[in-house]
Amino acid sequence: MGVKMRSEVTKRFSIDYAHRLMYHEGKCKNLHGHTGIIEVTICGKIDEHTGMVVDFGDLKTFMRPIIQKLDHSVLINKEDHDLLLYAQKAGVNFVAFMKEPTAENIAVYIHNELINANPEYSLRVAVKFFETPDNFVKIG
């Protein structure tokens, strides 16, 4: 029997979203949008029988509810009462965050949602969130 190889399997996803950072003093205090790229990486041993760490299709399935929730939504700090009220009254899709919807907090949110739905990956998952093509955050 050979050495068990460890590998990283990564799948990319794209979301379009709007947000504002109500406590930020720069231009991001204004409501604006991004096309965010999410990279989810699962690290583990290559299974001798399947030849995989995780099936790409399974990873897509695990991420589907998270993507559906975030894509084409407004990400709002729960303390941003005016924007929250507007989104509710206008029937706009939104996700209320406990904190500012920064790239860091969006990555943490995605990571936590993935882990809550799939606890077996708790020590093996990393999330990289690109707010722009040049700016990203990595969690895990």
Key words describing this protein structure:
140 residues; Tetrahydropterin Synthase, Chain A; alpha/beta; 6-stranded mixed sheet
Account of the protein in words:
With about 140 residues, the protein is of the alpha/beta class. The protein has one domain (about 5-140): 6-pyruvoyl tetrahydropterin synthase/QueD (Tetrahydropterin Synthase, Chain A). Helix content is about 30%, strand content about 35%. The chain is built from 3 helices and 6 strands; from the N terminus they run E-E-H-E-H-E-H-E-E. The protein has helices spanning about 55-70, 80-90, 105-115, and strands at about 5-20, 30-45, 75, 95, 125-130, 135-140. A 6-stranded mixed β-sheet has the order 4-3-1-2-5-6. Strand 3, helix 2 (about 80-90) and strand 4 (about 95) form a beta-alpha-beta unit. The protein is elongated, with a radius of gyration of 17 Å. The two termini are about 30 Å apart. The model has no long low-confidence stretch (mean pLDDT about 95).
What's the main sheet like?
6 strands, mixed
Q: What number of structural domains do the residues give?
A: 1
CATH architectural label: 2-Layer Sandwich
* CATH topology label: Tetrahydropterin Synthase, Chain A
Number of strands: 6
Strand content: 35-45%
Strand order, sheet with most strands: 4-3-1-2-5-6
Low-pLDDT runs of 5+ residues are none
